[in-house]
Amino acid sequence: MSLMLETVVKQNLLEGIKKALEIAPKRNFVEAVELIIPVRDIDLRRPENRFRIFVKLPHPVAYHDKIAFFADEVHVSKAREYAEKHKDEVTVTVIDKVGIETLRQSKRAIRKLRKRHRILLATTTLMSLIGRYFGRYLSPVNKMPLPVPPSKPADVAIEEARRTVCIRLHKNMAIQCKIGHRLMPPEQLAENALEILKAVINKLPDKARNLRRHVYVKTTMGPPVTVDLFTRKK
């Protein structure tokens, strides 16, 4: 996407997001803001046309995020330190080796873990263990942990996770994902949306030609707003 076209798309996204926030009824909770990207001319019966990617965004996406971290010794103490320091912004559940052994004994606890946490992390040294114990519960719902190498500080990994979303094209000819929450500045929401759009274009077989001319933005329970992607507003 050229810089000029990127500027047009970002401005259109910004205007659509502002309208979506304006027309969405106020709720007694902080709604997410979502982006819906329709695609076309793709045969999703062919495995090579389906994908799941994790995209790092410029800004965190959740009002109060929930992250689980399967942490080896190299990450445990710093992950717990981060969890305590940032508890007003994010809930970080740190699970050490003892916790893993305890967790594996309860299917209910595993299901609760995957449901309550938006994204999971794991020290790379624990990935094979987690796959063996929990893969059957996490993989089908796209909740396998993101690997964190021992050389990466725990706080950096968690900060990155707060800005990371999972994008999936599987059965439906549309991608729907969270770009943030309605208390964020619209400019930040537009920057997140643009980053997702660029990542999706890069994965599509025919790039931007597989996109329709429009996308939609909406709050969780609000009406969708159509955004014409490539039309320059006069």
Topology:
Elements: H1 3-23, E1 32-38, E2 51-56, E3 65-70, H2 73-85, E4 90-95, H3 97-103, H4 107-116, E5 119-123, H5 127-138, E6 146-148, H6 154-162, E7 164-169, E8 174-181, H7 186-203, E9 214-219, E10 225-228
Parallel strand pairs: 3-4, 3-5, 5-6
Antiparallel strand pairs: 1-8, 1-9, 2-7, 9-10
Helix pairs in contact: 1-7
Describe the structure in your own words.
By secondary structure, this protein is of the alpha/beta class. It is built from seven helices and ten strands. The chain has helices spanning 3-23, 73-85, 97-103, 107-116, 127-138, 154-162, 186-203, and strands spanning 32-38, 51-56, 65-70, 90-95, 119-123, 146-148, 164-169, 174-181, 214-219, 225-228. A four-stranded antiparallel β-sheet has the order 8-1-9-10, with helices on one face. Strand 5 (119-123), helix 5 (127-138) and strand 6 (146-148) form a beta-alpha-beta unit. The protein is globular. The protein starts with a helix and ends in a 6-residue tail after the last strand. The mean pLDDT is 95.
